[in-house]
Amino acid sequence: MKMLKTSFYEDSCVKTLVGFIALCVPFFGGLLGFFGGLAFTSTSYIIPGVLWLAAPKPKHYSKVHSYVSVVLLFTLNSFNAHSSWKSFIRIFQSYHFFLSQVCITIGLFIAITAPIGGVRTIILSIKTYKFFS
């Protein structure tokens, strides 16, 4: 694949044009809120929770389940836990299910409210906008 070579002057012209356009857009924070609410929340909150809920869990006596059980058993013994490790594993797995649903709910709330707030900020800043003031 051939690399595109640009000179110092071409790069400077492009950066100057982008800077001029950025100066003309007074509502950059509102745009960040709008697009961040749409893109950031889905990749940070919603998709990981949905993937964890959709992922196949290991069977009870598989190698993966045994490895996780041994790691949790050593962790519990190092903290001198008095509960049985099997009940801890069940609680741990149910917390994952609960926390995944909480993350999805929080992500949906942010995905709905952040674009609304971004549009509101843009509308308010357009009302009082003066070019290059």
Automatic annotation (TrEMBL):
The chain crosses the membrane at residues 12-28, 67-85, 97-123. Residues 12-72 form the Amino acid transporter transmembrane domain. Keywords: Amino-acid transport, Membrane, Transmembrane, Transmembrane helix, Transport. It comes from the Eukaryota. Pfam families: Aa_trans. GO terms for biological process: amino acid transport. The keyword Protein transport does not apply. One of its GO terms (cellular component) is membrane. It is found in: Membrane. The keyword Transport applies. InterPro entries: AA_transpt_TM. Its main location: membrane. This is Amino acid transporter transmembrane domain-containing protein. It comes from Arachis hypogaea (Peanut).
